[in-house]
Write a structure and sequence with these properties.
- The protein is of the alpha/beta class.
- The protein has three domains: about 260 residues, Ribonuclease Z/Hydroxyacylglutathione hydrolase-like (Metallo-beta-lactamase, Chain A); about 110 residues; about 35 residues.
- About 30% of the residues lie in helices and about 25% in strands.
- It is built from 13 helices and 22 strands.
- The strands form four sheets. It has an eight-stranded mixed sheet with strand order 7-6-5-3-2-1-17-18. Strands 8-9-10-11-12-14-16 form a seven-stranded mixed sheet, with helices on one face.
- Helix 8 runs antiparallel to helix 9 and helix 12 runs antiparallel to helix 13.
- The longest helix has 17 residues.
Amino acid sequence: MIGFETIGNATVTVFDDKPMLSTDPWIFGNPYFGSWGHSYKITKAQLDNIKNSKYFFLSHGHPDHIDPDSFELFNDKILLIADHYGDRIFNDLSKKYKCIKLKSNSWFEISKNVRIKSFADWNQDSTILIEILKKDIILNLNDAKARGWSRTIKNLVKNYDNRFLLKLVNGADVDMLNIYNHHNDFINPRMAKNNIGNMYFESMQNWNCNFALPFSCFHKYIRKDTLKMNEFITPLKDHFEGFNSSIGELLPAFIKWDSEKNDYEKISPEENFYEIKDPEYFGDNWSDELDKSDEAVISNYFNKFEHVKKKFGFLSFVIGKKEFNLKLSDEKAGIKFETPRNSLIFAIKNNIFDDILIGNFMKTQIINANSLNPDFSPYVSKYGDNGNARSLKEIDEYFDYYKINSADYWLDFLKIKSESIIRKSLKDYKYLYKFAKYIKRKARI
């Protein structure tokens, strides 16, 4: 068969008579300190195809895409990694595995009938285009927004007969959820119930695709202190509600597509049911407290982020029964984190702070500020942990790299900037609401 199949969370396996390429193989582990499990089982046939693939494409560093417990799959494989500033993933994995760094917007031949293009964006994520038989194209955005490459990708995609969009689309559970405001009230995520299908329709329009599949959103919470977050997960059946089929088809999430026959068969994996685990099973005891060396680790880590210090005056850490306050500047805004010691210190020491945020067992309270974005999360997790850019000088160098190495950097930057300005103005000028939605729809990246 020449074609592809989808399975798991964000894995697409591409065939040219035999398995040639699989993407983001999260197979065995429970990412985010045990918080996540697979929504559906990976069937034996699909697992064998993943194991037999010659290449693995790894899109970004989140553990539901690069799962440390699945690294045994990498033996005797060739890992394909985007050309990011800092090259953290490439440098770490190439110490043990055979890795190839893909130059953005350059074709790489997988086999006689399959080739790919990778696009590294400034959020330390990457998009991949997979061409099959020169007529089918898979746009695998996974969790990315292709910042710096939107127009280039759209112009490429529109030239193919069958154009498949694989992209994270969800009602609420897409990132950090356990967030509280200044008054310590839980910020309830806005659920897009009965309208998920329309998100697919708009995304297909935007990216010039005529097919889409639910993708990169198949997890459930299995840690006892995160179970409440399961109410924000979008059931698979809800993805199809409100879909407009006038420009194409929303396919089942798990399929095997035959590019020679222009047809597919549905794969029906079993739903996963997990034994709920206590946080102690993963090394987290909520009664543990920080010692002086832990406080030094936290201070040394966060004091390196100069942009964060310009925007936030303090960070507070409630660990066990004690609170550790870290003063950053004289700004009034601050953030309070309430979490177990073990995962916090592990995340900081290993430069994976995003993992503890997305695990959603840590309670995060935002004080005198609106959000963790854009001034905290990306500067700590994306540019800092993954890009190794923390000082203002390093941040300038970081973005200079993407300005030079992204064909549509300024186009996408200005779209995002204009949208954020409009959102801010909505508080005082509510009549701009419809206009902002129009801009967002046209400028979605």
